[in-house]
Amino acid sequence: MKRRRKLQPVAINPLVVDLSHHNDVADFGKVKAAGYAGIIHKATEAIGFVDNMYAIRRGDAMDAGLLWGAYLAAHRLWLAQYGPRPVTPRNWSSAWLWQFTGDGVGPKPHSVPGIVDTGIDINHFDGDAVKLAAEWSGPTTVEPATA
After folding, report:
1. How far apart are CA 123 and CA 78, in angstroms?
2. What is the pTM of this model?
3. At residue 2, what are phi and psi to the nearest 5 degrees?
């Protein structure tokens, strides 16, 4: 009988925060200083709903040096799966972003400096902030965070 190899957890690299009008943002500068490189913000939902905080927060986030994107504008594969490692559908080679935690479920961290709420949706990116910026559909440069 074949023994199944136990899958090891992934070293999580939290670089992108997923926000909407439900989240209370105090300071995008603190988000950047904590090592996050990008924000994906809800822009719309279903028919007729526009998240008014998308336009309001965009300038502040970009002024803080964060990449900016929208939920429905992503052109890459984004996997929302809470656990210690991503399991992608068979027809995916990999996930571009992996939302590993949300609403307090999944591996930590569940909070982000500069965002008042806990249970924040946080995304892993398999690379550094420079690689993320190169693959992002917005600005093509990002300054590394300083600790």
Report:
1. 9
2. 0.84
3. -75, 135
